[in-house]
Design goal:
Structural class of chain A: mainly alpha
Largest sheet of chain B: 6 strands, mixed
Oligomer: heterodimer
Number of helices of chain B: 11
Shape of chain B: elongated
Strand content of chain B: 25-35%
Structural class of chain B: alpha/beta
Strand order of the largest sheet of chain B: 6-7-8-3-9-10
Distance between the termini of chain A: 30 Å
CATH superfamily of the largest domain in chain B: P-loop containing nucleotide triphosphate hydrolases
Helix content of chain B: 25-40%
Order of helices and strands of chain B: EEEHEEHEHHHEHEHEEHEHEEHEH
Helix content of chain A: 55-70%
Shape of chain A: elongated
Number of domains of chain A: 2
CATH topology of the largest domain in chain B: Rossmann fold
Number of domains of chain B: 2
Radius of gyration of chain B: 24 Å
Low-confidence stretches of chain A: 1-12, 217-229, 353-363
Strand content of chain A: under 5%
Distance between the termini of chain B: 42 Å
Number of strands of chain A: 4
CATH class of the largest domain in chain B: Alpha Beta
Number of helices of chain A: 14
Strand order of the largest sheet of chain A: 1-2
Number of strands of chain B: 14
Largest sheet of chain A: 2 strands, antiparallel
Chain lengths: ~400, ~325
């Protein structure tokens, strides 16, 4: 039973109703203050920040420092710390995967902690649009992820450029980098022994030369079947002994055939490649953060969301990238990791170890996909997960 | 849009179900503006659920409601711009300081809220710990921080769910004074609590909720006026005194206890009856040492009301 008689109490005169402040509280656009405080909230998570810095900056830095020290103390045993090969390995391997995981972890954290730590209720009670509360997390999180990836990448670039080798080691032959075709032929003319012994050649060699400790340096040398002396090539029957001229002609032929492969080997990465690689890594990190944010918000907890993101990046994507399932090709194309790999800059090995999406001599990705489709897949993932995360936040009981 | 309503909170037929359970059952609640209003009920009565519905933390299944004259959820943002609330146990980001937590909340409010962070911390008495991490705060300090979070919006309506939890006696005293000062400023405070003594000292009006429904509401003085009158009589020969009074037609329930007699008279009994009881005892040769009218407390009335309801069922 409810009685409603004489409810009004003898109270002091209430203040007249003031208008609600004009702050566009119902707007879905987050304010600068919301983004700044959200950034502060994430940045102050000391443990998380240390873990992210260690993974994304510390591990590549430690690897390069060890290589620098090893080269400094034993330069004959250990090559230079930097260079093109180290760069491609780090960028397409460690930084690509770790950058994604770091960004996803931060995204999952940003998407779930308000709920798990009880702040979501306080924020909703302010009357601020739940959508704007969600959207404020995106620039705040990216303001952490993007510089973090950039710092790690800059360190890698700096070491790879400034500690690069002075000569190119191409299939075991030490030679200058960046030669034109004529220059490469000239080098082969001048160094027929190295060219014939070390450079690959897809045709019968029409001369004979001794490779090994007493001849031109060969990669096979000390371990060769003739106790370190290898005779490469078979002299034509009519020829008693190859002359220097025939050797030089053969060396030039080999150089001409190998030039296409040689010209994509560098001492250190070009500026163009570094810029493209940097943007590609940032794209991967942005995807990791946005998807993690949506997943964290959807699930309402961090741990499971982070595990799912790691499974996606480390297990699911590599499997899908190397196995074509005939009836599920379109589904495979929809995996964001493959779409990102399609946008990988030429010059890097394929991110999942498949060997050269656009890189030197590598095979193509197994699942064919146009750039347009890849871009569409990435946009769909970004928009889709943002919509899912925002929807859950807007409909969730606080 | 806000209208000049005399009610700070107004609900009609408000209902919230969780599956087959009805947590809030057709609640009709009217909270006058500019007063401290107690919202009382036993555990599981639906107090917090009603508050969550009012604040838009969860949706209602039926009914209408308005806060400060703004229909909710239609004008929710406008209404909540003038409302501050603590719901359940106040929890914050433990790795941030108290001040930083309030800055996060102030950023979601109007720009002027940022300037109120310091004064709010000072008002609730934790300014000296404002730059410590919340993970180091005691429960009582978190309660105070929760109240500070309400104050940064300069609210006209405060909804405080069990704000006394975790406070020591001195803290409860300070909280009571603060609530009274807020009311003195013309704000409305809705206080949900099971500490009936505190509510009686603090609030002007109350609503009793049980099993999702409001069963009584009104000013405390009027509600208690409907409670039975209890007299404590200290006298000689209590058993004979009881026999003398039983022989009259006063309609009193009499119990013999350690200090004397406990006499319960029906609600609305005129005060002349007290003099009549004294006269009967004295004329019967009973020495009356002390005769005291015991004021009915909110607690005894609350138990009376809820037990009466239980009996009727």
């Amino acid at each position: 039973m409810t009685t409603l008689t004489d409810v009004a109490a003898p109270a002091p005169d209430p203040v007249p109703l003031r208008r609600a402040p004009r702050d566009h509280r119902g707007s879905w656009i987050p304010t600068g203050g919301m983004i700044a405080t959200r950034f502060m909230e994430l940045r102050k998570r000391r443990g998380l920040m240390i873990a992210l810095i260690v993974v994304n900056i510390g591990i590549p830095t430690l690897f390069l420092v060890i290589r620098l020290l090893a080269h400094a103390f034993a330069p004959k045993s250990y090559g230079p710390a930097g260079g093109y090969d180290i760069y491609t390995s780090l960028v397409a391997g460690v930084m690509y995967v770790f950058g994604f995981i770091v960004a996803a972890t931060l995204g999952c954290t940003a998407g779930s902690v308000d709920l798990t730590e009880g702040m979501f209720r306080h924020l909703v009670v302010t009357g601020r649009s739940r959508l704007s509360l969600y959207l404020a997390r995106i620039p705040a999180g990216l303001a952490i992820v993007v510089p973090l990836v950039a710092i790690g990448f800059t360190i890698v670039c700096a070491v790879c450029v400034f500690a690069a080798p002075t000569t190119l080691n191409y299939d075991g032959a030490n030679l200058p980098a960046g030669l034109s075709l004529a220059g490469f032929e000239t080098w082969a003319w001048d160094h027929p022994g190295q060219a014939i012994c070390d450079l690959p050649y897809q045709a019968p060699i029409t001369t004979s030369i001794q490779c090994g400790p007493n001849g031109p340096v060969s990669s096979n040398g000390p371990n060769g079947p003739n106790g370190g002396v290898i005779v490469k090539g078979t002299p034509p029957p009519a020829v008693v002994a190859p002359t220097p001229a025939t050797n030089r002609e053969q060396a030039v032929k080999i150089a001409r055939q190998d030039y296409a492969d040689y010209r994509v080997h560098f001492l250190y990465p070009s500026n163009s490649l570094m810029i493209k690689s940097g943007l590609w890594l940032e794209l991967e990190a942005v995807i990791g953060f946005i998807v993690g944010l949506g997943l964290g918000s959807l699930l309402g907890q961090r741990t499971v969301a982070v595990i799912l993101m790691i499974v996606l990046e480390v297990i699911l994507t590599p499997i899908v990238s190397t196995h074509v399932i005939p009836h599920l090709v379109n589904l495979e194309r929809g995996v964001v990791g493959l779409a990102t790999a399609h946008l990988e800059p030429g010059g890097l090995p394929f991110a999942f170890g498949g060997g050269g999406g656009g890189g030197p001599g590598g095979r193509s990705l197994l699942v064919p996909e146009s750039t347009t489709v890849a871009v569409c897949v990435i946009v769909a993932w970004l928009v889709g997960w943002t919509a899912l995360g925002a929807w859950r936040m807007m409909t969730r009981d606080a | 849009m806000a209208t000049e309503s005399q009610w700070a909170v107004e609900t009609h037929g408000l209902t919230k179900r969780f599956g087959p359970n009805v947590a809030v059952n057709g609640v009709e609640l009217l909270v006058p503006r500019g007063c401290a209003f107690g919202y009382l009920g036993p555990n599981g009565a639906g107090k917090t659920t009603l508050i969550r519905v009012l604040l838009g933390l969860t949706h209602a299944d039926a009914g209408t409601m308005s806060l400060l004259g703004c229909s909710v959820p239609r004008h929710r943002a406008e209404a909540l711009a003038r409302v501050g609330a603590i719901v359940d146990e106040p929890r914050f980001h433990g790795h941030l300081t108290g001040r930083q937590n309030l800055q996060v909340l102030a950023a979601a409010r109007e720009p002027a809220a940022r300037d109120r962070v310091g004064p709010a911390l000072e008002r609730v008495g934790i300014l000296h710990r404002a730059d410590d991490r919340v993970s180091k705060y005691s429960m009582g300090m978190r309660q105070r921080l929760g109240v500070a979070a309400c104050l940064i919006g300069d609210p006209q309506l405060l909804i405080l769910d069990e704000p006394m939890n975790g406070l020591d006696p001195a803290g409860m005293h300070e909280m009571r004074d603060m609530i009274l000062s807020l009311v003195a400023e013309g704000r409305t405070v809705v206080l949900s609590s099971h500490l009936l003594d505190e509510v009686q000292r603090t609030c002007d009006a109350v609503a009793i909720v049980d099993r999702g429904s409001v069963i009584r509401q009104g000013p405390i003085s009027e509600l208690l006026a409907g409670a039975s009158l209890v007299l404590q009589v200290e006298c000689s020969e209590p058993d004979r005194a009881r026999s003398l009074l039983d022989a009259t037609a006063l309609g009193a329930q009499i119990e013999v206890g350690e200090p004397g007699l406990g006499i319960s008279l029906p609600a609305g009994t005129p005060r002349d009856v007290i003099a009549e009881i004294n006269r009967i005892l004295v004329e019967g040769g009973i020495s009356v040492y002390r005769l005291e009218e015991i004021q009915a407390s909110l607690e005894s009335w609350f138990l009376q009301v809820t037990s009466r309801l239980g009996d009727s069922e």
